[in-house]
């Protein structure tokens, strides 16, 4: 390998996010440079810090293309991440790069480089680009140093993925397999519609399922526009929005209100979010959608408060009633309007299958994606294990929370990402067993990984500390993955997102996992069981 390694830093599209994370990125790069130099190599940053912008990130696809034009095609390349990044900023350059590629992230809850890393890795996997990956808290630990040495010598890093085994229906419970296969055949025969409010969110190339891969599952896209959603919001009467807001307050949701629109949650913002909820349900009805996904972060973020409060309500079977304008008929009574956050179509397919299959199994059907955000070891209260922080920007259903709606609060989304505010739907996930999973694209086909996790209850002070070092406004799940270590999960998982759904017991979760695995296999996905 050449002694000179080019370092690239892909960042956010949003200026405030890049500026806020610049110091953490610079500190991380300094540590990486030091360890690389100790190994006899040198780092050359491929693009400068822009003093006018106040950061040194690649912040657009165009800029990324320009940066890669100046990097030798066969040069060793390191992509360093201490921030959420838009993968498409660098995908064009990486797609044609011929030298060895190493993606590296900090291990931090506050500076979400590892979340950006997982998205980039999944995007590279979908694109068929070969890469290696590493992560570290301080870049001096044996795991990182040994992995770096391996990459410097061989151009690749090999991780332990012995926790992954290909699903074999002959080794699974026969009843669960039969349920799953029958379910899948019915879905493919009857077909379903996935409503897409503008495709592609925050650079998530990995989250877009090509139509030719989706259609064999029996699911087809209805491509909608977020401008349609916004226009429909304008037709919702103030009294209707007020009715949703009152319904939530009566159920015990605590809204943390203020008066400063720039930094605090206001009643006006909440009422707009209630209008978005009503508009989304009506559009889902109009187009016959079985599941919907709102992008929000581009487009709607400049028009209206965050979509997350609406998304969490949509994903709950018990939710404020919405009526058809012409007939006053209640829409989807007693049902969730299954929503996949950040229009992640891989999560959308998973959520649709999970919701319907869980209903058939008699399990609570509510499901959501979370970010695989961060984690650390915890000892106490009967827990002695690595506990992940699963966290998303507010779209989790209240059915997942301790005390449901009464255990939920709504806080203003961080101004750095959500300029126009809006409330989240925040709560602590209740103890119990969940099936976790991820649909992803690799080798030109759909894949499906799944396993079990125990959601544990941590002391309030530990939960609060975890919130403070991640994002305190968002719902949180304390999850112990069964039979999967931290580094195994990072090495294998092909997304920043992870899907979760509760089951009544561990045995029931195991049945559900195998039933869903059989269903996905019947739908044509390549299925793997992880850990357990």
Which range best describes the helical content: under 10%, 10-25%, 25-40%, 40-55%, 55-70% or over 70%? 25-40%
Radius of gyration: 22 Å
Choose one word for the global shape: globular
Structural class: alpha/beta
Which spans have pLDDT < 50 for at least 5 consecutive residues? Answer: none
CATH first level of the largest domain? Alpha Beta
Please indicate the percent range of residues in DSSP E strands (runs of 2 or more).
Answer: 15-25%
Distance between the termini: 39 Å
Could you please say which CATH topology of the largest domain applies here?
L-fucose Isomerase, Chain A, domain 2
Write the CATH architecture name of the largest domain.
Answer: 3-Layer(aba) Sandwich
* Number of separate structural domains: 2
**Largest sheet descriptor:** 6 strands, antiparallel, barrel
Mean pLDDT: 97
Number of strands: 18
Identify the strand order in the major beta sheet: 11-12-16-15-14-17
Note the total helix count: 15
| CATH homology superfamily name of the largest domain | L-fucose Isomerase, Chain A, domain 2
């Amino acid at each position: 390998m050449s002694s000179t390694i080019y370092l690239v830093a892909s960042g956010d599209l949003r200026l405030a996010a890049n500026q806020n994370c610049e110091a953490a990125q610079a500190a991380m790069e300094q540590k990486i440079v030091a360890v690389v130099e100790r190994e006899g190599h040198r780092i050359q940053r491929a693009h400068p810090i822009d003093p006018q912008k106040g950061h040194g990130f690649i912040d657009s696809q165009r800029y990324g293309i320009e940066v890669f034009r100046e990097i030798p095609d066969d040069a060793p390349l390191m992509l360093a991440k201490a921030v959420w990044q838009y993968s498409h900023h660098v995908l064009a350059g990486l797609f044609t790069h011929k030298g060895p590629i190493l993606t590296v992230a900090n291990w931090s809850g506050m500076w979400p480089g590892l979340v950006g890393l997982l998205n980039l890795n999944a995007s590279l996997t979908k694109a068929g680009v070969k890469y290696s990956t590493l992560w570290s808290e301080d870049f001096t630990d044996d795991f990182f140093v040994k992995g770096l040495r391996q990459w410097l010598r061989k151009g690749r890093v090999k991780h332990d993925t012995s926790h992954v085994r290909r699903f074999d229906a002959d080794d699974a419970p026969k009843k669960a397999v039969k349920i799953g296969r029958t379910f899948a055949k019915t879905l493919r025969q009857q077909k379903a519609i996935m409503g897409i409010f503008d495709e592609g969110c925050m650079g998530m190339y990995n989250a877009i399922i090509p139509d030719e891969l989706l259609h064999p599952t029996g699911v087809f896209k209805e491509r909608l526009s977020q401008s349609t959603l916004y226009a429909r919001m304008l037709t919702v009467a103030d009294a209707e929005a007020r009715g949703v807001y009152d319904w939530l307050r009566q159920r015990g949701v605590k809204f943390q209100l203020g008066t400063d629109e720039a930094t605090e949650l206001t009643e006006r913002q909440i009422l707009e979010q209630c209008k978005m909820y009503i508009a989304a349900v009506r559009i889902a009805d109009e187009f016959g959608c079985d599941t919907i996904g709102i992008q929000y972060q581009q487009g709607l973020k400049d028009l209206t408060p965050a979509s997350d409060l609406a998304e969490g309500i949509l994903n709950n079977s018990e939710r404020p009633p919405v009526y058809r304008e012409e007939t006053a008929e209640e829409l989807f009574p007693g049902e969730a309007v299954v929503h996949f956050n950040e229009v992640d179509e891989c999560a959308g397919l998973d959520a649709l299958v999970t919701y319907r299959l869980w209903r058939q199994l008699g399990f609570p059907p509510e499901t959501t994606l979370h970010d695989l955000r961060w984690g650390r070891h915890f000892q106490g209260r009967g827990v002695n294990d690595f506990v992940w922080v699963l966290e998303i920007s507010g779209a989790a259903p209240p059915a997942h929370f301790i005390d449901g709606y009464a255990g939920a609060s709504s806080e203003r989304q961080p101004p750095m990402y959500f300029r126009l505010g809006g409330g989240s739907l925040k709560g602590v996930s209740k103890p119990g067993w969940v099936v976790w999973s991820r649909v992803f694209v690799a080798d030109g086909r759909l894949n499906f990984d799944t396993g079990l996790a125990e959601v544990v209850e941590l002391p309030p002070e530990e939960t609060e500390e975890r919130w403070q070092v991640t994002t305190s406004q968002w719902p949180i799940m304390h999850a112990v993955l069964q039979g999967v270590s931290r580094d195994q999960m990072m090495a294998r998982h092909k997304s920043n997102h992870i899907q979760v759904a509760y089951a009544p017991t561990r045995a029931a979760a195991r049945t559900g996992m195998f039933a869903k695995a059989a269903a996905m296999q019947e739908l044509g996905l390549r299925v793997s069981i992880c850990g357990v």
